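Researcher: If convenient, please comment on what follows.
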Amino acid sequence: MGYTKCRVEILKRTTIIILTILGVLILDQWLKIHIKLTYPIGEGFNILGQKWARIHFVENPGMAFGLEMGGAAGKYALSIFRILMVGLLGYIIKGIVDAKESKWLIVCFSLIIAGAIGNILDSMFYGLVFSASTFHGQVAEFMPEAGGYAPFLQGKVVDMFHFPMIETTWPEWVPKWGGSSLEFFRPVFNIADSAIFVGVTSILIFHRSFFTKPDPKKESLKENSAATTIVGAAEEE
């Protein structure tokens, strides 16, 4: 009976992982493909008519929130790193499931995995299946006759969420930036980036104890060592 109950709990947690990852990936890829096939780079629309909340299509060859790494070599390195991290996170989440950790902790790790996979898919396949988008010009085509715009693992990540809540200029007295434009929040991101951010932030805020739990094996060794010392002292007496 206990074995059956344990298997059921593992199955429930595995289902949570699968549904979370699939949910994020479907939303992420659907929106990216829709934006890619609808708008040229630099265009979009205000969300609910609000100037501070926009869908603004951009592409970046690098990391989350528009950060970049240098050249094709950097892109390959980043893509390989992401794939390795997904493998590592998969190993970690398996241990979390086996240890019957909180379901919310499982959701957090699932969000991170889903976000990483979402951006990996862009890098792997978008350059192969889409033509290039241009700035305020050409809208991309799916499976163009001339072929895609980049080789495997060199595709660009599609970003679209932009929240310029504050648009002003730096005061003149500020060194280096005085008089230049100031925008907050400047980065443009996607659903995959958001999933990673929410997952990591939630773990750091609500599940920090996961990283400070004592290792049962080490605790057992300490107890055995202490017992051996006590026994040895008793024998000497």
Notes: The CA atoms of residues 49 and 55 lie 11 Å apart. Residues 225-237 have pLDDT under 50 and may be disordered.
